[in-house]
Sequence to fold (314 residues):
Amino acid sequence: MSTAATYVEFADREAHGVSPTYERLSRAVAADETIHRLLAEVPEAKRQPNLLFGVVRLLGGPVDDPNAFHDFTVERWADIAPELRGRATQTNEPGRCAVLLPVLEKLPQPLALLEVGASAGLGLYPDRYAYRYGDRRLGDAGPLLECELTGTEAPTRLPEVVWRAGLDLNPLQVTDPADVAWLDALIWPEHEHRRERLRAAAAIAAADPPQLIRGDLVDDLPALVEQAPAGATLVVFHTSVLYQVPEPKRQTFEELVRTLPGHRISVEAPGLVPLGELPPAPDGSLHNVVALDGVPLAWARGHGQAMSWFADRR
Fold:
């Protein structure tokens, strides 16, 4: 896909109705041949909108004015390019726990959670957050995660988690101001509620840090799995991670994860996990597929704000 097409698709399917600032900016970049030429200097995987916009914000650049964004990007490209090459979109959105919870609730408790692509590990605390699904609320501490849930009943209990660990090529630490600044830069401009969630979730993780291992999702996963305690249901999960993994490695990961004990929850864009035929998504915006052990269950929006369960209606 061309750079222009990538930015148009981001505007249409991800930013539209969610971030007017990023929708407007992405359409402007789609037509900006100067920025296209600059982006051609970095690997294709490093040209994605979320990464470019996050790096510019991290460096103090403007994203609310496309013309100012253009000028800043051109003038500061010598600073921007190394950041693009060295970073990844490690969005660590606690709200995604709201689409994990309906699946986690149904598994034998207690749970041992292992997240692949864990970033700072904020997705490892589904038992420490509060949730609202319509008029049902669970939990009374931590950030409140709201999710529009259709097609199934809302969860009635929080999971019991006795072990939590994460694997990431570059794990982030919520006690490191530079790492938190990068997590903040990845949050879209209008989403102050997500910034508040980030701060609240980071406080929970800092008080009880998870085990975060720097490693590869194929080479280093089996050794971490072996550390999970006996007597707990192992759940290996990953959300919006595999689009950053080259296809040959995705295939190897798929073969590996099927041999592991316990269960696997995937929350990924269609086509990244082999799931067979899927029903139509609720609308034209980008949705991830929530699946348990390779069985697709529901559609979910990228930040956990909505989930449409379809498994019982297929």
Remarks:
- The radius of gyration is 19 Å.
